[in-house]
Amino acid sequence: MVLPPHLKTLLPKPVHDFCTGALYKKLDRLFLIGQEPEWMFYVLSGEVTLERTGLRGESVILQRTRLGFVSEASLQVAKYHCDAVAISDTQVVKVPVKAISESLKLDPEFSNRWIQMLSSEVKHLRLHCERLSMKSIRDRVLHLIQTEGTGGKYPVMTGLKSLAGELGVTHEALYRTLAALEKEQLIKRSSGLLEMKRPDNSKENNGHRKISN
Amino acid sequence: MVLPPHLKTLLPKPVHDFCTGALYKKLDRLFLIGQEPEWMFYVLSGEVTLERTGLRGESVILQRTRLGFVSEASLQVAKYHCDAVAISDTQVVKVPVKAISESLKLDPEFSNRWIQMLSSEVKHLRLHCERLSMKSIRDRVLHLIQTEGTGGKYPVMTGLKSLAGELGVTHEALYRTLAALEKEQLIKRSSGLLEMKRPDNSKENNGHRKISN
DNA sequence: CGTACTTTTGAATCGCATCAAATCTGGTGG
DNA sequence: CCACCAGATTTGATGCGATTCAAAAGTACG
C-alpha cells in the first residue's frame, strides 16, 4: 500500500504495513452504527458522510469528509455512533485502529504528532465554523480566501459545485456570487484558482451591511 | 487550588500545583487575539465564548463553553487566533501551558488522556459545522436537540439570545422559529429547557439530505 | 421604582434557495 | 472522427425565510 505523504509522515513505520487501500461505490457503507471500530478511514478522493437517523426518522448528517480522516473519535469509543456512507465513488486508506492505539502507547513521538494533528484539526474546524456563521455568501468566499488561501490565492481542487457544498450554499448562488465579485474586480478567477485582487484595507466603501451587536 | 474531578484525573500530578482559580466578570476577556498563550482555561461555571471580529466588525462566535477547556489548540500556536470572552460571571481554572506541554513529553499516560480530550473536541466541532451548514433555523434547532441533547431534552443555560449566536442566526428569528415549532407541537419549551416531542414519522422526507456532487 | 437586559411581536426588505433550462465540458463508444 | 452522454457551469424567474429596523412587553436587580 502506497501511503500519501501526509499519512506517511504522521503514522509510525510499524503501522504502515497494516494499512490497506479500498474503493467504495456510491452509497456504499464504510461502517454501520453499533459496530466495533476496526479501521480508521482516511479519505483520498470522493466523499464520505457520517449520518445518523434522527428522532423523526430523517437522516442527520454529522460530518462530510473529502480529504482526511473520517472518524478520529473511533479511537475512544467501543461502538460507532453513526453510519459512514460513500456519497460518490470514494478511495480511502484503511488504518487498523488497534495498530494506532498500540502505537500511541509505545511511541511518544507519534503521540505528539497525533496531538499536533488533532490540534490543527480543532483550529481548522473553528475557522470553518466562523465561516459558516457568516450570513452572506460573499463574506464566506472572501473569508475562505483569506483564511485558507495563500497570498490571496485559493486553489479550487474539486470544482465549484463541491466548494459550494463546503461553504454551505447552493452551487447556483455561489456561481452568481463569484461572477459578481469578479465583475467588481474583487477577485479573479482562473481555472482551479480563486485570487483576491485588492485586500480589503480600504474603508467600507462597498459595504452595504451593517455592524451588528 | 482544589481541582474538579475531571481535571484531577486528566492532568498529571506535577501540574496540579501550578493550577490557579480565577473569576471573571461578565464581558471580561480571558485572552485577546494575538497574545502568546500562557494559560489554558478550564471553565467551571458561567460561560465563555471564543470570538473573532468579522470582516465588517461584527463579532463572530466560534465556540461557547460552559464546562471544559476553552482553547485546546493554544498548545501548538504562538499566538491566540481569537478572543475569549466571559459571557456571564465565570469561574475558571488556569493551567499553565508550559507545564502541560512539558508533561505531554514526559508522561505518555497524560498524552493519551489529552488525545481523548482533543478527539471529543473534534467530534463536537464537526457537529457544530454540520449544524451551521443547515439552511433553515428549524433544522438547526432540531439538530441541536438531537445531537447535543439527552433523550430529546436540551438545556438552555444562558438564554436564547446566546443560543441564537451559537446557531448563527439572529435572536428574533430564533424566537419566531421556536414559537412556530412549539405551535406545531414539535417541541416543548420549559424554563431553561428545549424538549423534542413526538417523533413525527409522517413526513420524513422533509429534512432529508440533498448532497451535491 | 428606575435601569438594563431579555423576550416577543410587527412590518419591510433582501439574499438565497428553488425550479428550470441552456450551454459547456470531458469522456466513451460506434 | 463524430455522436452521444453525464456532469459541471451558467443564466433566468419566482417565492420563501431570514435579516433588518422598530417597538412593546416581560424580567432581574440595586
Spell out the blueprint of helices and strands:
The structure is a homodimer of 213-residue chains.
Chain A: H1 5-10, H2 13-16, E1 20-24, E2 29-31, E3 39-45, E4 48-53, E5 59-65, E6 68-69, E7 83-86, E8 90-96, H3 97-106, H4 108-133, H5 137-148, E9 153-155, H6 160-167, H7 171-183, E10 187-190, E11 193-196
Antiparallel strand pairs in A: 1-8, 2-7, 3-6, 3-8, 4-5, 4-7, 9-11, 10-11
Helix pairs in contact in A: 3-4, 6-7
The structure holds a DNA duplex (30 and 30 nucleotides).
How does this model look, in words?
The structure is a homodimer of 213-residue chains. In chain A, strands 1-8-3-6 form a four-stranded antiparallel sheet. Chain A has seven helices and eleven strands. In chain A, helix 6 crosses helix 7. With 213 residues, the first copy, chain A, is an alpha+beta fold. The termini of chain A are far apart. The longest helix of chain A has 26 residues. The first copy, chain A, binds a DNA duplex (30 and 30 nucleotides) through helix 7.
